[in-house]
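Contributing new records

If you add data, match the layout below exactly. Sequence lines come first and carry their own label; structure lines follow with theirs. Keep one chain per record. Anything else will be rejected by the validation script.
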Amino acid sequence: MSAPSVRRRRLGAELRALRDRHGLKLDDVAGQLGHGWDGPRLSRVERAQLGIKPDVLNALLDVYAVSDVGRREVFLALARDGARRGWWQTYRDMISPAYAELISLEADAKSLRSYQTLVVPGLLQTAAYARASITGINTASTPDQVNALVEVRRARQAVLARPAPLELWAIVHEAALRATMPAPGVMRDQCQWLLDSMDLPHVSIQVLPLAAGPHPGMAGPFTVLSFPESADLDVVHVEGLASALYVEDAADVAVYGSAFEHLRAHALPFAASADLTARIKQEHS
């Protein structure tokens, strides 16, 4: 059985909280749903082991007296993610479930805030830079696997070119721009790609200089994804070498949101970020 999605886990937790708030038992609620529902089946929904169809979810929200239209839409949006398949399923043998989850969230997101320390954000990488960084990180990957991962990384960038593009705000540490790549011209072209991306109306890029001093980003890179239905759905992605952490608790997500605001204040303004990127590009020539 595949791992439950981030949004399905969030839906289950919210439904369980509603039931607890009303002091209801699983069997009591399931009995009001009909259609073959029982306590164990509803428990599987709450534990993110089973999806739920919109008509049943609406009936469940009626039981819990959720009348606000906007709030109901949030629940329905969480439920819709379960059965959806995307282009990344073609690469399911090449990418981890956590990576597939990130791609799915990016596809659904309205905006994304990214802070990176040692690499350029994946959504802003050139093919050559992606190949070099993937090869360096995934030391056991075969050439075919690297090729597939490069294809995936570049395909992810379609979210920036769709009719309603993802709004991206990236803060990149100066150290990432000064990295040395084995192939000549890789970092020069990558810096130029960042400069070109800075002209896009839905892309904001700031550089955090080496001289920035102590800041929240010293704890490591992270990404905050926000969705059109509600700020309550925000998710934080923290990537590791062999796994990824998804932060879903609203209070914890708020900590990362505050950290990003502090990083924006520590980073160079847009014009100064462009100037520094251009100077570093020349150093790579």
